Structure formats: C-alpha cells, structure tokens
Amino acid sequence: MLSLGHKNLDVWQQSKRLVVHIYKLTKNFPSHEMYTLISQIRRAAISIPSNIAEGASRSNTKDRRRFYEIARSSLVELDTQIEIAIDLDYCNADDIREIEKEINQLFSRLSTLITKTK
Questions:
Q1: Are 19 and 102 spatial neighbours (Cβ–Cβ below 8 Å)?
Q2: Burial 16-42 (b: 16+ CB within 10 A, else e)
Q3: What is the pTM of this model?
Q4: Helices 37-56 & 61-87, crossing angle to 10 degrees?
Q5: The domain at 11-116 falls in which architecture?
Q6: Residue (of 78, 84, 73) closest to 21 by Cα position
Q7: In the chain, where the domains are located
Q8: Which of 12, 28, 63, 101 could form a disulfide with 58, with the two C-beta atoms 3.0–4.6 Å apart?
C-alpha cells in the first residue's frame, strides 16, 4: 500500500468506514437487487473515499476542490439511495441509524474541506 497523505485525513478514514457499513447493510437486501440498487449504493459509497484520495493527490487547488465536491455529491447520492431502500422495506431506521450519523458528519466535514480548499 502507498503511504500517502490522504490516509491521514479524518474525512477519508471515516468515509472508508462508511463503505464497510454500507456493504454490511446491503448484504441483506434481496438478491434481485444485486445489479441494481445494491450496486448503485455500493458504487456511490466507494466513490466517496476514492474521490477524496484522488483530490488530495492533485497539486492544482481547483482540481483538488472539484474532487472533494464529487465526493460530497456521491454522499448525497448515497443518502438518496438509502432512502429508496427504506421506502422499499429493504432496511429500516434502526438499520441505518449509525450510517445516518456518518453521512451527516461526512457531509459537514466535506463541506468544510471544500471551503478551506482555495
């Protein structure tokens, strides 16, 4: 593994933990959702730490900020997909309580990171 600076960012570490929680949540979804909602949710979750890492590796401030914005957009996408999963009764409020906290914290942290990247 590379020893790079983004791995020291709390926001990257937390987003990586969120991915693990999302995988655990979606493993109990109906199997017919494997190539639709499960795939979408997992890809959105994985996109968050991936874009934080890519942004942190950019030397251009504008590029770095753009990748952080993409990470935040993926977080919003993930939030929407989880709401759809709740509406479909694939999970409930108890199932996502910790995930919901993480999403809110990450949104705030990413917003701060974007604002500070000038």
A1: no
A2: bebbeebeebbeebeeebeeebbebbb
A3: 0.94
A4: 160
A5: Up-down Bundle (1.20)
A6: 78
A7: 11-116
A8: 63
